Q: What sequence folds into this?
């Protein structure tokens, strides 16, 4: 656990997802939660080792399952998320938890540890921006559509710290699900501007970074959008996005044993971008191209 500024902490050593915590006069505000019960227990112990005070709130940065499943392990009276995230969670299919646990659990012991898990729906939502206040701490939340329509950032400008969720991940391929890649690119461009105070960025996954991490993400999104746009407007079917995988695969590092999983992630993202262009055509929005 690293203390980025007085009372502001980040942990990048858990499986799958980075988490943060802000100590206020009233208690802890968590930013995402570890999905694995053993990591959640360790995170709780770390926090209580700093200050044995209640957990007052959890901020969930998007609807990716490993960002919100861990909320179950913490008794927070308030869970905050973007309205799009809340809508997504309310409409999860009945089989969601079974498939999520199957994906997360690495062995039968872990599968049994997940047996009691349930989805905890957020209790507070917003659409553009929101400010949490606990004690003397003000914690601004910004709606920043990107890898999901309900992605949000926790920005602490007075400390130059940004918790960016999966809008920024380091040294791995992007998670593009119910996304808006056009808005994602615009948000990354705004982040790179000098007036956006963010000297330390806590990404959704990977080590702590700075604004330089946004460039490879933007380059990847621009290339993917150009290639999918050409394919779509040539009248080719969505299945043909698989032909673009070899060009995108080398843009971020990966382990050789992970190649099939990474290819599936790229394909899912390309398919989502294809659907973006399809929707733009339906709505007559040529500016998105």
A:
């Amino acid at each position: 656990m690293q203390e980025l500024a007085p009372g502001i902490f980040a942990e990048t050593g858990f499986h799958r997802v980075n988490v943060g915590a802000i100590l206020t006069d009233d208690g802890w505000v968590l930013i995402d939660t570890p999905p694995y019960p053993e990591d959640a227990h360790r995170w709780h112990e770390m926090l209580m080792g700093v200050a044995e005070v209640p957990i007052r709130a959890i901020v969930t940065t998007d609807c990716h399952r490993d960002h919100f499943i861990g909320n179950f392990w913490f008794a927070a009276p308030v869970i905050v998320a973007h309205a799009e995230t809340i809508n997504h969670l309310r409409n999860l299919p009945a089989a969601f938890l079974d498939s999520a646990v199957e994906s997360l659990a690495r062995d039968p012991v872990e599968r049994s540890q997940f047996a009691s898990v349930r989805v905890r729906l957020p209790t507070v939502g917003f659409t553009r921006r929101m400010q949490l206040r606990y004690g003397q701490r003000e914690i601004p939340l910004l709606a920043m559509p990107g890898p999901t329509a309900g992605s949000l950032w926790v920005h602490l400008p007075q400390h130059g710290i940004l918790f960016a969720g999966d809008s920024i991940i380091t040294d791995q391929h992007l998670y593009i699900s119910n996304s808006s890649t056009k808005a994602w690119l615009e948000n990354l461009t705004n982040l790179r501007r000098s007036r956006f105070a963010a000297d330390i960025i806590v990404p959704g996954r990977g080590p702590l970074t700075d604004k330089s991490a946004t460039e490879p993400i933007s380059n990847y999104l621009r290339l993917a959008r150009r290639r999918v746009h050409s394919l779509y407007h040539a009248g080719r079917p969505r299945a043909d996005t698989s032909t673009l995988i070899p060009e995108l695969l080398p843009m971020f590092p990966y382990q050789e044993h992970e190649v099939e999983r990474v290819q599936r992630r790229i394909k899912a993202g390309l398919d989502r971008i294809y659907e973006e262009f399809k929707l733009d055509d339906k709505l007559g929005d040529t500016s998105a191209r």
